[in-house]
Amino acid sequence: MKTMKFPLLLIAAAIILSLAFYSSMPDQMAIHWNAHGEPDRYASKGIALFLPPVIMGALLAAMILSSRMDPNQANIQSFRSGIGIIRIVLLAVLLGIHMISIAHGLGYAIDVMVAAPVCVGVLFMVIGNYMPTIRPNYTIGIRNRWTLTNDKVWKLTHQTSARWFVGAGLLMLLTPFLGYPWHVIALLLLAFGATIVSVLLSYRYAQMEHSSK
Length: 213
Prior knowledge:
transmembrane; DUF1648; 213 residues; Putative membrane protein; transmembrane helix; two-stranded antiparallel sheet
C-alpha cells in the first residue's frame, strides 16, 4: 500500500485543483499547444479539468494491472521500488501538464516550449537511472525477441541504454534554447533516437552472444 500512497496523492491533487479552480476557468480551455507554444486546441472546462485526473487514474490502473499479470513476478518484485518511482514521475508529469492548462486558464503566460522538454527530459533521466536494476519481464524495459530470450542480452542492453536515456534526458533540457523549429526536431530526435538505439543495441548484443557460442 505504501507504493500506492504518492500516486494516489498526485491523482487527488489533480482532482482538488480541478474542483478549486472550476469556477475561475473560462468556458473553453486550452488542452493542446503547437510547436510555437501557442494554444491550438480547446475543450469545455469540464472536460479540460476532469479528463486529466481520469487519464491519470486509468494509467495507474493499467500499470498496476500489467505488473500483476506479468508472468515473471519474482523479477517484478525485485525492482518494485523502481517501478514505483517511474509511476510517480510519470503521473507527476501529467499533473504538471494539468497545472499548465489551469495556469493558462487563469491568464498566466506559461512557456510550454520550456516546460514540455523539462518534463520529458526528467522522465527520460529517471527511467535511465533505474534501467540497470530492471530484470527480465514483460511489463517495463526494452522488451523484444532478443532481450526476452536471453538474460545476458537483457542485462547488457539495459546497462548501456541507461546511459543513452540519461544523456538524452539531459540534452532535452537544453532544447528550448534552440528556438523554433529546431527545439521540436531535437526533442523528437532525442526521444526516438534513444529508443531506437536501445533496440539496435539489443540486436547487437544478441548477435555477439550467438557468435560466442
